[in-house]
Structures are given as structure tokens and as C-alpha cells.
Amino acid sequence: MKQRRKSEPVEQLRRSEKKWTKALMKAGYTILPNVIIERQKALGLSPTELNVLLHLISFWWYADNPPFPSKKTIADAMQVSSSTVQRAVRRLESAGYVKREQRFDRDRGQLSNIYHLDGLIESALPLAEEAIEEREEIVKRNRERRERKNRRRPTSTKLTLVKSDTDEGQS
């Protein structure tokens, strides 16, 4: 297994800054496995559900601290109603991708829900493994193609006719 250098996250950030600009990266970014976007159909996610997930994920900064944005915050960012977000969250919960946990404050009452995304991760893992196998198969085919292309071909040598003793007697 490849050892990671401590400087890799810094190098990755620099590459991202070159691509997106330093200002955009400084404003914040979200790490999202590609398989969730690429296999949206396989996961059965509507565009609205995927958008809600993207917003939830953008509020999830630490593994041990699940996100808890309000539905209104997500709705305002998506330019949809809070009920649209609520319906999408309900469908995500029915699919097992999201688990809501209510939060309460003694003085302020009910707060925004906490959203656990363990179900999404669990559902996306087999798709990730499938994507990895597909990618490895492509790499293998490309390597084999390059190897076939780079094989040494026999050099063209001039063939000479050698006469045998039996040939001499026939002429």
C-alpha cells in the first residue's frame, strides 16, 4: 500500500487552487466521492435529492460531527421551498441514505435536525468497489495494449535460397 506523505494534502490544495483559484478554495470546499455523482441513477437519486445531499455534505466538516443545516438554509440556497427540501429529505430517509435526529434546546425549543449519512455511505460502497474494478480493468487493458504495441517485431532479414543436394540433381 502506498505511503502518504504529510505534504500531500497541501499539494492537493495547491492543485485545487490552481484549478479553482485561491479565493474560491479559501471560501470553502466540499470533499465528495465521485461515485455519488457518477452513480446518481444507480442510487435512485432525483436531481433535487442529490442537490439536498450536496448541501448536507457541504455542512459536514468532521466525521464525528454530523451536519445540521436548517431546511430553510438549504431551500434558500437551492431557490426552492422548505417543503420541497422536506419532501426530498423524507425520500432520502425512506431510501435509507439519511437518518434524521431531532435536536432540542431547553431555552429555544426544537432546533434544526442532525443528519446522519451512514446509509448513503453504506449504499455507495458497493458502487465504489464496482467503479474501482472497472477502472482497474481499463488500466489493465491499456497496459496490455501498450505492451503489445511495444513488443519487438522481428527485424526484416533477407531470406536466401539454399540449394540442397537433391535440388542440384533435379536441374
Short descriptors:
9 helices; 171 residues; 2 strands; mainly alpha; Arc Repressor Mutant, subunit A; two-stranded antiparallel ribbon
Description:
This protein is mostly helical and 171 residues long. The protein has a domain at 34-128: Arc Repressor Mutant, subunit A, CATH 1.10.10.10. It is built from nine helices and two strands, in the order H-H-H-H-H-H-H-E-E-H-H. The protein has helices at 8-20, 22-26, 34-38, 40-43, 47-58, 71-78, 82-94, 118-150, 165-170; strands at residues 99-105, 109-116. A two-stranded antiparallel sheet has the order 1-2. A hairpin with a 3-residue loop joins strand 1 and strand 2. Helix 6 crosses helix 7 (82-94). It is elongated and about 115 Å long. The N and C termini lie far apart (71 Å).
Task: State the gist of this model.
By secondary structure, this protein is mainly alpha-helical. It has helices spanning 8-20, 22-26, 34-38, 40-43, 47-58, 71-78, 82-94, 118-150, 165-170; strands spanning 99-105, 109-116.
